[in-house]
Design goal:
Layout lengths: L2 H12 L2 H19 L7 H17 L4 H23 L5 H18 L5 H4 L12 H5 L7 E4 L2 E4 L6 H22 L2 H18 L4 H25 L10 H14 L6 H23 L7 H22 L17
Antiparallel strand pairs: 1-2
């Protein structure tokens, strides 16, 4: 087994677009759950709408800045449509509604009636919408090496996408850091702990919840844009498993923390690639096929989530007193 190549693969994945996209989605989910106590099981829906908004508008001829605004706008509209009639629900009822809403988005996206717009079940190929993003790169067309990782400067899985993606993550973390220390953030934490007490103080709990849902959804949409800039837009690639993975990442790093979602994403994807690579190299193919190795990797993800909930629900960086799930 080539451990050097394995560790290179792990490092490449930990810093890659998938980890970036999930970090942004988990930051949004942290605003929903970690700060406000909303159990949103439909974050993949926000990611998919952001991906479609960016891709469809780019294909229609929109410049890069407008495509990003369309992606954000799609998430805002979805949050309003979802939140206005449902945010008076609590706990598992809200979870059921949000997961159903995300499934509606996925099924509409792969519908044959919208094939000309969304590509239907075939999706939208990356070459049809990546040009404006790649053309915005100030980097020369080349391949650069940083330590053991060598990548193209301008491509689907490139240094340019990593620079932009991690810049978005940094800005999102700074925003959340300021948010949790603001009066608005303190109201959200109060709603998480006891919304009746906050309502008794004269605060409009419904309005604050809606604002949190919109804001977290915007970060989810940005994650969806980064996700598809490295591949293509496929409705089924942003389905229920994406939401569950995002929850695992958030709980792994620590809910109600600033850096927890980022740390969780790094560890999640690094560990998953390491386990898969190790099993492929250590276990003969006649014992475990490639498909079985992939399945075992996801089985370990499920076991990890179970162990986290049981033994350390606050995550690596979290404080047990901050986790709303423990207080209910």
């Amino acid at each position: 087994m080539d451990f050097g190549q394995l560790l290179t693969n792990v490092l490449t994945e930990m810093t890659g677009p998938t980890a970036i996209a999930y970090a942004l989605a988990a930051i949004g989910l942290n605003i929903h759950f970690g700060l406000t106590g909303l159990i949103n099981m439909g974050q993949a829906g926000f990611m998919l709408l952001g991906a479609y908004g960016f891709a469809v508008s780019t294909i229609a001829g929109a410049p890069l800045w407008l495509a990003f605004l369309v992606a954000i706008g799609a998430a805002v509209v979805f949050a309003l449509i979802l939140g206005l009639p449902t945010l008076k629900l609590r706990g598992d009822y809200l979870a059921i509604v949000t997961i159903a809403a995300a499934e509606i988005v996925r099924m509409v996206g792969r519908s044959t009636a919208l094939t000309e717009i969304t590509g239907g079940s075939e999706g939208l190929t990356g070459n049809s919408f990546k040009s404006t993003f790649q053309d915005a790169s100030p980097l020369p067309d080349d391949r650069w090496a940083l330590g053991p990782v060598t990548l193209a400067t301008n491509a689907s899985n490139s240094w340019w996408l990593r620079i932009v993606g991690w810049t978005l993550v940094l800005l999102a973390c700074l925003f959340v850091w300021r948010l949790v220390r603001s009066p608005w953030g303190r109201v959200l934490r109060g709603i998480r702990e006891d919304e009746d007490a906050v309502r008794a103080l004269g605060k409009n709990v419904y309005s604050y919840k809606l604002q949190a849902l919109v804001l977290g959804g915007v970060f989810g949409a940005l994650g969806g844009v980064v996700f598809v800039l490295a591949s293509s837009v496929q409705a089924d690639s942003l389905g229920r498993p994406v939401t569950f993975n995002t929850w695992t990442i958030l709980l792994l790093g620590g809910a109600a923390t600033v850096l927890g979602p980022v740390l969780g994403s790094l560890l999640f994807w690094g560990a998953l690639v390491f386990v898969r690579g190790f099993l492929r190299g250590a276990v003969p193919a006649d014992v475990l096929s490639v498909q079985q190795v992939e399945q075992i990797g996801w089985v370990l993800v499920g076991i990890t989530l179970i162990l986290l909930i049981v033994f350390r629900p606050q995550g690596i960086l979290g404080d047990k007193k901050e986790l709303a799930i423990n207080a209910r």
